[in-house]
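Input record, target 12 of the design panel.
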């Protein structure tokens, strides 16, 4: 495969993460084509120029359309605020580029469906930034469930909590604008939903409540702007195989820094995982002598692929950015047409978007909502 020329739009938290992944995927995996950091787009020329120098891009622009129209660019990483994803992804696909777009797809279901349609029509690879499914620990949990080691899964609980919006004095930003979506549902819930999508059965119906801990936040000029999104959501889930679930998400949970706590209960055991200790999980199985039953902590190691690509020593641990490097390798696998690339593409990601919109509908109408 010829060299891959990368375009990147947005260079905040996730933009840097994508740039680091594109830089590291070759050295870490050793089996990918040359990666060229081609064209970086930012909100203005000055920022674009500075970030291109910092991240190692050859060209830059203060207008994202220059990135998607650049004939040299093969793949566009889209890491801008949610409301911009649809226009950027659709333009990139129509220009013949592959797309690696951050989650969620878009605030509106219509926009997300248009992204799916454009990806199908273009025939180009289009995937979403669901990095947590790439964790070697999560992959191993999936193998344990698929092998029946904890029996039939009957109940799942998952909580995603952080505290970056816990301070009532935190400034009003794009995440508090209705244009970004519902709030914690499409900012956070989509991540646990990506884990459920790879670990357990599809969701059949949902019942959701949402809450807004602070009515307004400080904005420019000393005024306080009303918060338009919900930082908290609590959801009951029913899976297509009859299992039940609970999903709780909170962006205002003091003390929680990167929690995605998963509990999976089956007829023959259970599994516990928390992203804050992302290099381990706990397994309980009933096939041990009763006097020795209890949770065993398993630390990830080179036995949990692709951990060994990063480091040969067991228990030394990967980090958040490494998940993006693995996701980048999977994207390259999909671009090469390799079998079994572990990605959530637009076709599969739309189920997550539908689930989020069903949850919001459930909140509005105060009832269970079936997923079509
Ligand atoms: P951010 O605010 O840190 O960065 C957004 C960037 O987009 C900024 O650099 C901004 O200048 C740039 N931008 C804004 N408008 C632009 C325009 N018109 N043209 C070009 N650039 C523009 O935001 P973030 O936290 O990096 O979030 C970005 C996306 O990543 C969101 O969709 C978010 O949901 C997602 N995200 C994913 C994860 C994950 O774990 N996968 C984590 C955090 C955020």
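The sequence produced for target 12 reads:
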């Amino acid at each position: 495969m010829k060299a891959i020329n990368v375009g990147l739009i947005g260079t905040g938290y996730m933009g840097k993460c994508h740039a680091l992944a594109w830089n590291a995927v070759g050295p870490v995996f050793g089996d990918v084509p040359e990666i060229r950091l081609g064209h970086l787009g930012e909100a203005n020329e000055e920022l674009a120029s500075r970030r291109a120098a910092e991240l190692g891009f050859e060209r830059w622009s203060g207008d994202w359309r220059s990135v998607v129209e650049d004939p040299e660019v093969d793949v566009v990483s889209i890491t801008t605020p949610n409301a911009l994803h649809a226009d950027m992804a659709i333009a990139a696909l129509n220009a013949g580029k592959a797309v690696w777009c951050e989650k969620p797809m878009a605030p509106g279901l219509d926009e997300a469906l248009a992204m799916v349609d454009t990806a199908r029509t273009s025939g180009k690879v289009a995937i979403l930034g669901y990095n947590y499914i790439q964790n070697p620990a999560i992959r191993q949990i999936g193998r344990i469930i698929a092998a029946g080691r904890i029996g039939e899964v009957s109940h799942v609980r998952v909580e995603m909590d952080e505290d970056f919006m816990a301070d009532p004095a935190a400034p009003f930003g794009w995440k508090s604008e209705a244009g970004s979506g519902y709030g914690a549902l499409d900012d956070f819930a989509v991540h646990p939903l990506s884990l459920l999508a790879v670990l357990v059965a599809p969701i059949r119906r949902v019942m959701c409540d949402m809450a807004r801990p602070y009515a307004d936040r400080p904005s420019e000029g000393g005024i306080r702007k009303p918060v338009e999104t919900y930082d908290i959501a609590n959801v009951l889930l029913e899976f297509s195989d009859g299992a039940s679930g609970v999903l709780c998400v909170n962006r205002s949970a003091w003390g929680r820094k990167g929690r995605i706590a998963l509990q999976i209960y089956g007829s023959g055991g259970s599994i516990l995982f928390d992203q804050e200790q992302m290099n381990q999980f706990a397994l309980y199985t009933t096939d041990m002598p009763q006097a020795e039953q209890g949770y065993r902590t398993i630390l990830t190691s080179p036995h949990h692929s692709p951990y060994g690509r990063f480091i040969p020593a067991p228990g030394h641990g990967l980090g958040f950015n490494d998940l993006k490097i693995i996701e980048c390798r999977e994207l390259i696998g999909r671009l090469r047409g390799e079998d079994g690339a572990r990605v959530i593409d637009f076709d599969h990601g739309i189920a997550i978007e539908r689930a989020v919109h069903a949850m919001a509908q459930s909140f509005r109408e105060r009832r269970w909502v079936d997923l079509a």
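The mean pLDDT is 97.
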